[in-house]
Amino acid sequence: MVKIRIGSIGLGRLGLTHAENIANKIRHTELAALCDMDEKRLHETADRLGVVNRYTTFEEMIAQKDLDAVVLVSPSGLHTKQIVAALDAGKHVFSEKPLGVTVAECKEAEKAVEDHPEKVFMLGFMRRFDESYQYAHKKVAAGEIGKPVLFRAYSQDPEKFIEGGIAFAAHSGGEFLDMAVHDIDLARWFTGSEPETVYAIGGCYAHPEFGKYHDGDNVSCLMKFRNDTMVYLFAGRTAPHGYNVETEIIGTKGILRIANVPQKNLVEILDNHGVRKECSENFLERFDSAYVREMQEFVDCIIAGRKPEVTVYDGARVLEIAYKCKEAFESGELLKF
Ligand SMILES: NC(=O)c1ccc[n+]([C@@H]2O[C@H](COP(=O)([O-])OP(=O)(O)OC[C@H]3O[C@@H](n4cnc5c(N)ncnc54)[C@H](O)[C@@H]3O)[C@@H](O)[C@H]2O)c1
Known about the structure:
38% helix, Dihydrodipicolinate Reductase, domain 2, Rossmann fold, single chain, 2 domains, six-stranded parallel beta sheet, seven-stranded mixed beta sheet, alpha/beta, globular, binds nicotinamide-adenine-dinucleotide
């Protein structure tokens, strides 16, 4: 069986997991190169995963002739430039979200993908690969809950990682671009529709540091979609109990809830705090298998010569919507798309 030779850039919070998955869990692949500007991190990881080809710049890595594909887990502001360069160098590309940090960058990425129709491009909206979201999506698509009336999603990072959030704030693009993009993607995927109007509120309830980036530590928005679905999204950084991602879809004939009580596993603890279940600690724990399944899909698409369901246009559209939400948050006005 053919082996897809992958080079991965970025060995930070998520990049390490993608590299480990490619090396150990993804079928028909070889982790054939690693890149990170942090040399210590690069060599430690490459030694551990048995990777010989190591680079501190992306340009050097994509010059490696026998690489079939690259995986971008670099900072968001580098994605577009690296997507264009990798496609031009003849590589298939998996990029972490967001596609770019401006709408103009997303257009550039769209053009690069269109210019290389023979290459597979996939964006990392991994929630679509979570088994519970996939199960729920099938039910909604089959009409089991009738016509969607309300899509409600909460995504909260744990307060205990707030220092990282503050350090990342200057480059993250803000809570709508960094966190709410996942829920914007899900809202479009579940409703099959696009937003018409948005109103957004929120603020710095516990951490004024975000204010200087015109961001909040907790933000939310209400959107009306063209098919009349009400979409309510809440994104926050101060969950006291863990990584809280929950979704609800109310339809005319039924309601679906996904991880309504986000929990680590099926264990219940009875102790001097009462009877309780623990919550997932972070995105790596909650979406552990989704990261594996999405990467397997990328590789399977390359081998089968087919295109992934998550396209460059999804990435561009979601970023445009996130920007409008950010604009609505900053202006306090009801905005039209
Ligand atoms: N899909 C998800 O659930 C999810 C979760 C977290 C992060 N992300 C995305 O993944 C990307 C990476 O996020 P992270 O949290 O892992 O970041 P991080 O800051 O933890 O890691 C980034 C890594 O890239 C390296 N790097 C930075 N600039 C570089 C350069 N010019 N050349 C080579 N290496 C460079 C850094 O040394 C670091 O190791 C971001 O775009 C983020 O939005 C997605």
